[in-house]
Amino acid sequence: MDFDPYPDNRVVGTARVPSGPQRTAPPVPVKIIVAGGFGVGKTTTVGAISEISPLTTEAEMTMEGVGVDDPGQASSKTTTTIAMDFGCVTIDHTLKLYLFGTPGQTRFAFMWDDLVRGALGALVVVDTTRIDDCYPAVDYFERAGLPFVVGVNTFNGQLGYNLDEVRWALAVRDDVPIVQFDARFRGSVRDALLVVLDQALDKAMKMRS
Amino acid sequence: MRHPADPDDPEHPAAPGVRPYLRNTGPGVRYQPEPPPAPSPGPPPGSSGPPPGEQTTSLRPFVLTSGRVDGLDPNIGLETQVSSHPGALSARLSPEQRAIVHLCGEPLSVAEISARLRLHLGVTRILVGDLRAAGHLDVHVLENDFPDPETIMRVIRGLRSIS
Ligand SMILES: Nc1nc2c(ncn2[C@@H]2O[C@H](COP(=O)(O)OP(=O)(O)OP(=O)(O)O)[C@@H](O)[C@H]2O)c(=O)[nH]1
Ligand SMILES: [Mg+2]
C-alpha cells in the first residue's frame, strides 16, 4: 500500500504551473459545498470558519421543477440567477480550502454541475423545523455521487427532532453521516467539515484502489 | 418518535427522488418560505428575455461579453486560480479585462475575481477565458477531477489545527 497518511514534506504538484520566471505559484484549491434551504445558516457556517468575511458572487443555475404538484409532467428547466457566498481557509501556501454556500429551494432542484465539479464533498445544512427544504440538495448530491454529510444546525441549542427521525425524514443511506452542529461556532463548523473530509478521503482511497 | 426509521419501508425507501415531501406545519414552525414561482411554460432557453424577476442582473453580462454566453471552458471553475502575465497591462483591454489583469498579479480564484469586481460569475469566466486565449493570463488547471488522498489528509490536518 503506497498511501502515506502523513506526507509531511511533500509538495502536491497537481496544478499545472506554466514554466517561466519565478512567479508566485498558486495554491492548489480544494472546495467544499455548503448547501441547504433558505435561512438555515449557510452563510453563518461559511463565515464561522473562513479567514475572510464571506464574499458574494452571482451565478446562473439551471433549475429543474421536480413536478411535485404535477407528477405526470415532464420536468421543466429554467435558468435563474442566484447569489452564492464563499470563504476560504489557507491550509498552507500550497493548499487552500474554499467553502461555497449555495441555496437550494423546495420543489426545485438546482443543477449545481459547475459548482460541484472537483468538489471534495458537501455539508447539507438542515433546520429541523423545515427538513424538506434540503431535499433538493440531498437528491442532487446523491445523484452526483458527491460525498455529503447532513449537518443539523441546532438553532438556540434546540434540536426539534432526534437524529434518527431526521434520518427517516431524509431517507438517506445509512452510510451518510448526520451530525449536529452550531453554525455560529468555528469549532463546531470545523468538526462538521472534518466529517465531510472523512467521507471525501474514503472516496479518494476507493478511487485509488 | 413518530415514525420507525426503517430503511426497508417500501413507502420510504432510501433512494434518490423518493423523499417523503412533507412539510412540517406543527406548532414548532417559525418560518414558512414563500412558495417558489410555478415553472412557467416559457420562454425556453435561448429565447429572448431573462426569466421574470431576473432582469437586473442578466442584461449587463451579455453586453460585456459581446453576446457570447456559451463556449464556457468547463475547466475554469469557481476555485480555479488565475494569474496575469507581467506585460499584460500594456495591452489594449476593456476596463473589465484590465481590472482582472490588475487584480491577478498574485494568483486569485475566479470566484474572488467575480466578487471583488462585482462581475457576474458567468461573465468573469468568459472574460478570463478570453484573456487566457489572448495570452494575458495563466489559468491553473488541475489535472485530477477529484483530489488525491494525500491532499485530503493535508486539509484534514490543517483544519484540525484550527481552534
Ligand atoms: N440562534 C441561532 N441563530 C442562527 C444559527 N445559524 C444561523 N442563525 C441565524 O439565522 C439567520 C439566517 O442565517 P444565515 O446564515 O444567513 O442563513 P443562510 O442559509 O445563509 O440564509 P440564505 O442565504 O438567506 O438562504 C441569521 O440571522 C443567523 O444569525 C444558529 O445556529 N443559532
Ligand atoms: Mg446566505
From TrEMBL, chain A:
Q: Where is this region: Disordered?
A: 1-24
Family of this protein: Belongs to the GPN-loop GTPase family.
Its taxonomic placement starts with:
Bacteria, Bacillati, Actinomycetota, Actinomycetes, Micromonosporales
Can you name the source organism?
Answer: Actinoplanes auranticolor
Cited InterPro entries: Gliding_Motility_GTPase, Gpn, P-loop_NTPase
Q: Which residues form the signal peptide?
A: none
Q: Which UniProt keywords apply?
A: ATP-binding, GTP-binding, Hydrolase, Nucleotide-binding
Asked if the Swiss-Prot or TrEMBL record annotates the protein with the keyword Transport, the reply is: no
Q: Which GO terms describe its molecular function?
A: ATP binding; GTP binding; hydrolase activity
PANTHER family for this protein: ATP/GTP-BINDING PROTEIN-RELATED (PTHR42708), GLIDING MOTILITY PROTEIN MGLA (PTHR42708:SF1)
Q: Per its UniProt record, what Pfam families does this chain match? A: ATP_bind_1
**Protein name (record):** ATP-binding protein
From TrEMBL, chain B:
| Database matches in PANTHER family | DUF742 DOMAIN-CONTAINING PROTEIN
> What residue spans carry the region label Disordered?
1-61
Pro residues: which segments have biased composition?
Answer: 33-53
Bias kind Basic and acidic residues: ranges: 1-12
- Native organism taxonomy: Bacteria, Bacillati, Actinomycetota, Actinomycetes, Micromonosporales
InterPro entries linked: DUF742
Tell me which stretches of the chain form a coiled coil.
Answer: none
What name does UniProt use for this protein?
DUF742 domain-containing protein
Note the Pfam families from the entry: DUF742
